[in-house]
Structures are given as structure tokens and as C-alpha cells.
Write a structure and sequence with these properties.
A hairpin with a 2-residue loop joins strand 4 and strand 5. The longest helix has 39 residues. The chain is of the alpha+beta class. The relative contact order is 0.12. Strands 2-1-6-7 form a four-stranded antiparallel β-sheet, with helices on one face. It has two domains: 80 residues, SH3 type barrels, CATH 2.30.30.100; 112 residues, no CATH class.
Amino acid sequence: MKKLLSAILLFSMFFLLNSGFSQTGKDTILLLNGKVIIANVIDTTKGVTSIRNPKDSLKKILIENDRIFSISNNKGESVMYVLDSASGKEFSIEEMRYFIHGEQDAEKAFNAPGALWGNIVIGAAAGLTESFFCPIPPFAFIAFSGLPRVKIKKSTVSNIDYLNHETYKMGYKVVGRKKRKVSSLIGGGIGLGVGIGTAILLNSTGNSLSK
């Protein structure tokens, strides 16, 4: 009976070490663009951080240290970001932390339906002309979509206190403009496809708009 209990105990310990407890050994890599990677860090020397590929533990992924803000685990956080105006890193550690919070909130909650639907309409109208230059209007709109001010809605802010920090707003707006341009690009592509497709269909039925 004692041997059976000992075997069960050993099996339980082995199971725990290879399941739940192993997860605490994971490292959290926070990138300067706000992305988070959960993986085991192998090495951080020579200007590069080597991690085990989360999808294939037999392979490694290399990340330049200049792209990393910090690495955290059950021992705490190790900040790798260093203020260096010569390389464009002009924020202090805390300022950069707020900048990243802004990037993350915008990535999670900011949407640009106006840019999407606006360029769908422009792209469709341009596509209907069947002109060689029809892609120009939607592409011009993409460039324009990055100009208007990005409005930060309080409902998209994870911590209202962040709004008291300028670098948070800067990070939010950087990602907001990027997402607006991406939405505009998608909308322009859809619009052009719809417009050109409609023009081809009309031509095949003898109802060309050019008549």
C-alpha cells in the first residue's frame, strides 16, 4: 500500500512540474510597439534576445534588444529600454511605459469606420470609370486619412489616469493613425473591386456608363 501511495505521489509531482508549474517559468517580453510575447528567454547578450519559439520549442526566435522595453517573470521586471537621443529614444523609462500603454489601448479599442467606408465609396466611384488612373483617388484618400486628429474616447482608455500623460496620448495617436490608414487601404481595395466589377457587368449587358 505504501509503495502505491509513493508511486501516486511521485506521479502527481511529475504532472504538476510539467504542467501548471512550468507556466510560471515563462517570460513576458514587452516590445516597444506594445506587442507582448510569452516565451522562455534563453539569452540576451550580443544585442539580441534569444527565445524559444512558443509554437515549436525546438526552434529559436531572435529579437533585437533595441525593440524590447522589458522582460518580466516571477522574479520581477528587467527593463532593457535605455534613453538614447542619438538613436531616437528620447523618452524616459516611465514616459516610454505610458507611450506603450497608449499603443496597446489604441490597438485594442480604436476603430476607424469612417476611413473604411469613405474609401469604399471613393474606390467604387473611381472603379466605375474604368480609367487607367482609377486607383489614384483611393490611394490619395489613404494618404489623407492619416492627417485628421485622432480623438481618444475615454471608453477606450484602460486607465483614465493615463490621459494625464502626454506620451500616452502620443502612443495612442501613432497606432490610431496607422489603423486608420489600414482601414482606408482595405476600403479602397474593396471599393475598386466593386466599382470595376460593376463596370464590367454593365458593359457585358450593354449598359455601359460611358455611353
